[in-house]
Amino acid sequence: MSRAAGKAVVVSGLGKSYRVGRRGFRPNTVVEAATERLRHPLRRTVYEEFRALDDVSFEVPWGEAVGIVGRNGAGKSTLLKLLTRITAPTRGRIELSGRIGSLLEVGTGFHPELTGRENIFLSGSLLGMNRGEIRRQFESIVEFSGVEKFLDTPVKRYSSGMYVRLAFSVAAHLETEILAIDEVLAVGDAEFQNKSLAKMRDVAKDGRTVLYVSHQMQTVTALCTSAIYLERGQLQYYGAVDGALERYRASFATFAATQAVASRRAGTGELRARAVRLSEDTYEPSEDKLIEIDLDANPEMLGQYFVSVHLNDENGVTVVQCDSRNVGVWLDPASAQSVTLSVTNLWLKPGRYTVDVYVCKTGILDSWEGAAVFEVLPVSPYPELAGDEALAAGMVLSDFSYQAVPAPAVGTP
Amino acid sequence: MKREELALSTGARHGRSATAAARRARVTVITPPGRFSLPRWTELWEAREVAYRFAQRDVLLRYRQTVVGVAWVVLQPLASAGIFSIVFGQVANLSSDGVPYFVFSYMGMLAWNLFNNVLGRAAPSLVANQSLVSKVFFPRMIVPLSSAASVLLDFLVALVLGVVLLIVYGINPGWPVLLVPVWVVLVVLLASGLGLIASALQVKYRDVGYVLPWLTQILLYASPVAYAISAVPENLRALFNANPLTWMLGMFRWSLLGLERPPLWQIGAFAGVSLVVFYLGALFFQSWERNFADVI
Fold first, then answer.
1. Is residue A16 part of a domain?
2. What would the pLDDT profile of B126-183 be if each residue is shown by its tens digit?
């Protein structure tokens, strides 16, 4: 019997390396490759090995919904691509005790010229269903999507909503024992997202196994029974969802600490920000936020530069971008500068926010992610008190008002 | 709605059955690929539905939103055969081994188009489907191989017209006509083998897209498609006879026009070359396949 008995997925020592040309040269045509070889006949191409994923081992039992979290570039998507066999591993071994279905995008294989019916069969077969399964599920797929009337119309004539609904319905009826899902699937309107989440929950309830890559902590909490936290290609944690998310959140703090050292930051370094200060550590949601940035001088630099500040929420989602070009502010590198950014009329929801500062000219001179952190206090900026559910949805709050005017009765001229 | 309720009420039972089903299912083991590995034929067979859907898509797309539709399939070889019979038969006054020049070059074009189109459609197929290659797993070989299906359909339509031409000109090729399916299989193997190599190369080097049409154009004139091998000067004959496409054209003309049978060694060699090229193509494709998603 295989070691994998009783487990859905067994991964041991898995690694994926990419070769990166050290001088950034990568031939795209034979001629380019040949001329490069002729120009430097003696130079051996030096490759740098980039380990996108390194020595990852874990086992997933049946019926588990596993969230895979980590910062950008931590190897989440690579792991999913290895599990779904889109790309081959460099080291290690994966055992899958069943068919694996991958939902890495909405509408895999959809062709605009084909009709809805033809696309159901094409996409279904690509996702791993056989003809019998598609036939059996056909009615149900069509019903779920609600596009019965347009089944024999080319999908290029569909509205984008209809297209997404049909594409998702096909994916939702995939009956493989293991399902790998990328968060890009969570697009579309709220109704669609809820539908897809509910469907994924059903999958796990059925005793099948779900692997779900996401940035959004809420969905991981809502959907997953355990989680994996990846950092720089290595598996740092596998266990309870809370534990993984805690590490994920902590990673923002350690990241900010390393960023404080200018030389370790990305960017050309021609000119860097020296300090970033906030007017306060905590704000009320509707308060104005003042951000002061001290910038070094570089008399040798030609032309003017600009700064761009991003405010990100706890999950790393950028809430707002304040680019000085938008308000016509360009800075002179001849002398050191101190600029103050006032963010007004932005009502943030309670929570922790990070500030990214980018100094740019044509390229990025300095990229300081997590330059400052502030907290928005859990007080309501609105005049009336309502329940929590009156504040729960949405990413930001806003200064809104309602005007109610009694509508004229129907039928009167 | 009804479905979901059902799923909830039978959730527990489902859970067990799904697990049990999975236990019975084969365990897939994924390891780093070796340098040379043979294609997994069982996997290819299991993905035949994908191949069928790809082929169906190709066929549907080619004739949807075209006015004359299927007529294009026969117009193309008809027009080429017409031009060849004017240029080579009338202007250059070459021999066509005693059959009317028009049918002679039409049958040549038939065989040539089969070879050329299988190769020509396989080569860019992976790049044309790059969104699929980077987003979902299926045996990649299916992409170039399934592109042969629409070419075969074109061939069948053009062959029917060829039979009409034979009746009009009163030519009876006799029993060798029964061998045509065998020749078709061999040509498809040869062209697909080359197509596998070309498509894998094109993933990394897009030059293939420019070089290949140019090479096949040269090959068209270097092979006795529009003229008979007997019209080739004696001192060049050996060179022409070393070209497998010369053998292929001889075989087709023997079977379809009742012309002289090509030497047996040519038939045997063509079968051998086709099988070997296809096998090598599959090996080459397989060894490049592991990097497709990373470089496409």
1. yes
2. 999 888 888 888 889 999 999 999 999 989 989 999 999 999 999 988 899 999 999 9
Q: Is the confidence at residue B15, as pLDDT, over 50?
A: no
Note down the domain range covering A298. Answer: 264-380+386-396
CA of B200, closest CA in chain A: separation in Å?
Answer: 14
Closest CA to A58 of A5, A100, A10: A10
* Phi, psi (deg, nearest 5) at residue A403: -125, 115
- Phi/psi for A44 (5° steps) reads -85, 135
Q: Indicate if A205 and A352 belong to the same structural domain.
A: no
- Report pLDDT for B23: 46
**Which residues in chain A show pLDDT less than 70?**
1-5, 20-28, 41-47, 183-193, 410-413
pLDDT band at B12 (very low <50, low <70, confident <90, very high): very low
Is A176 in the same domain as A227? yes
Half-sphere exposure (Cβ direction) of B78: Cα atoms closer than 13 Å: 14
Of how many residues is chain A composed? 413
pLDDT at residue number A58: 92
Mutation for testing the A interface, residue in B136, B142, B288 having most A CBs under 10 Å: B136
Among A194, A215, A250, the domain-final residue is: A250
DSSP 8-state class, residue B90: I
Please count the structural domains in chain A: 2
Nearest to A207 among B19, B31, B134 (CB): B19
pLDDT of B74 > 90? The answer is no
- Measured between beta carbons, the chain B residues lying within 8 angstroms of A170 are none
Q: Which residue type does A207 have?
A: G
Max intra-chain CA distance, chain B:
84
In a shared domain, residues A318 and A179: no
Q: Which residue has the higher pLDDT, B190 or A65?
A: B190
Q: Which of B3, B60, B138 sits opposite A114 (nearest CB)?
A: B60
Write down the pLDDT at residue A292.
93
Q: Do A146 and A181 sit in the same domain of this protein?
A: yes
- In DSSP terms, which residues pair with B113 in a beta bridge? none
List, in sequence order, every residue forming a beta bridge with A239; answer none if it has no partner.
A227
B13-24: average pLDDT: 44
Strands A100-103 and A178-181 turn out to be: parallel
* pTM of the entire predicted model: 0.73
Closest CB to B22: pick one of A131, A154, A177.
A177
Token pair of B275 as six digits: 């099988």
**pLDDT number for residue A44:** 61
Q: Which two tokens stand for residue A133?
A: 């399964």
More confident residue, A410 or B116: B116
Torsion angle defined by CA atoms of residues B142, B144, B150 and B154, in that order, rounded to the nearest 10 degrees: -140
CA distances from A63 to A7, A85, A183, A191, A225 (A): 10, 21, 20, 25, 9
Which CATH number fits the domain that encloses residue A310? 2.70.50.60
Give yes or no: residues A135 and A225 share one domain. yes
The one-letter amino acid at A230: L
Instruction: Find out whether A230 and A236 touch, Cβ atoms under 8 Å.
Output: yes
For residue A301, give the 3-state DSSP assignment. coil
State the Rg of chain B over Cα: 23
Residue A106 and residue A240 share a domain: yes
Give B-chain residues touching A131 at CB under 8 angstroms.
49
A91 interaction partners in chain B (CB closer than 8 Å): 32
B290–A95 C-beta distance less than 8 A: no
What is the predicted pLDDT for the residue at A395?
A: 83
